[in-house]
Amino acid sequence: MKVDIVSIFPDYFAPLDLSLIGKARTTGTLDLTVHDLRTWTSDVHRTVDDSPYGGGPGMVMRPEPWGQALDAVVSDGATLVVPSPVGKPFTQADAQQLAGLDHLVFACGRYEGIDQRVIDEARDRMPVREVSLGDYVLFGGEVAVIVIMEAITRLLPGVLGNADSLTEESHAAGLLEAPVYTKPLAWRGREVPDVLRSGDHGRIARWRREQSLLRTADRRPDMYDAYPPDLLDKWDRKA
Ligand SMILES: COc1cccc(COC(=O)c2cn[nH]c2)c1
Question: Whose C-alpha lies nearest to ligand 1, atom 6?
């Protein structure tokens, strides 16, 4: 997968050299390039922003540098991803879908946003996904891109050693995961639930399923209500 990131703070992406994402880059699974938006400015001050038409607080990112930056990095099969407070909520399903694409270009907005014409013009020549990570406002898109890149990269083939954890994981299955335990058996007077040491894998699977359902119903009624009813009882019947 080829990924290009355009930002006025390219150094923000140093963390993407670490750990699994770093490994994905060295193995060639991930071809990541970070670009400084100011590369595409032409004035001596390398200006990327200006005051908003119609007034209001803050500054807006100018269209010209963005237009030239996208001209330079976009290829035919590219999809533009713009983290934004006004985007569509980003979900695991979106991560799965983006992980299957050949080329992603991330535009990191700052200030009050990017001149709307940049997004509109981009839509004329490529798929554009404005995505929100949550109902809050960040200083800019950089940290959101790091989050999105982590969600996508772990889904790429060969990146996550234990592929089972991909199939098992809750958000992919539509429920929250059951609690997890490891050694020691007793810790500060708290023991590991006996069922997990029973060796009875059917019983363990049922217990985990019940814990997932209880947790999801308690913490995420939205997810619980969206869970396919036939999956609820079919699974339990089988088990
Ligand atoms: C595109 O223009 C802007 C302007 C300001 C900040 C940002 C970064 O995104 C967020 O703040 C965000 C993403 N999900 N929830 C919040 C983008």
Answer: 140
